[in-house]
Amino acid sequence: MADDLPTGVAMTLEPLVTRVLAPNASAYTYTGTQTHLVGTTDLAIIDPGPADDAHHAALVRAIADRPVRAILITHHHRDHSPAARRLAAETGAPITGCAPLVVRDAGEQADAAFDKDYAPDRVLTDGEQVSGNGWTLQALATPGHTANHLAFALPETNALFSGDHVMGWATSVVSPPDGDMGDYMASLDKLLLRDDRIYYPGHGEAVERPQRLVRGMLGHRKQREGQILRLLREAPQPVAAMVARMYVGLDARLLGAASRSVLAHLLDLARRGLVVEEGDLWRSI
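== Glyoxylase-like metal-dependent hydrolase (Beta-lactamase superfamily II) ==
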């Protein structure tokens, strides 16, 4: 069972991929953040996780004195990137991956807070690669959960490290202003054009039928969009009223995330000319 996954244990998922689970389980991280080690004789480390001594020690054990060619970051949330700095100092590997962000307004960030000290040595753009002995990782721009989110494809085994864009347990929080629902949906459409065999997400189990899951996620978001439009056709409403009707029985710890996702939908609908904001209320056009 996923709830019984051990933290700090290096688990081989396939010959080129090892997973180490960080001990930071929460309502937003599920069983914790998963760090992936790619390679055999030399390594890339994807999302080294939070600044946690026990997790760092587990990664050092899993690395086992092998050279680390790159520390790759999918996005700048503090359950994914802070451990990179200590690991880079000890291994000499460059911090590589998503661009740093200047946060204009954190708002009610419902998921993990920003890693404001994230400063990569190299920023990867869509299609750029890093490689080692027998492995290649290609950056795939997948904005939406965050504006700078990257996934990493491993063409040698047709796998994709999907970060928080596609997770193995729930849909991502899309929280404005950094999160953008239009970008998120476009990134899901982008994944549908690919033929990846398996996804290794930042949280939750590996996704063995990724195309089916992505289609389901797109359908889920379009269903939420339809709910919002139906509610606003009844009467102008504030976000809180819509959340109360759309998420009946939701764990109270997740109401903030639900509110941010509804807001993200509203902002996307407003850009498309379907709704408008009037003070604290939203109404359909």
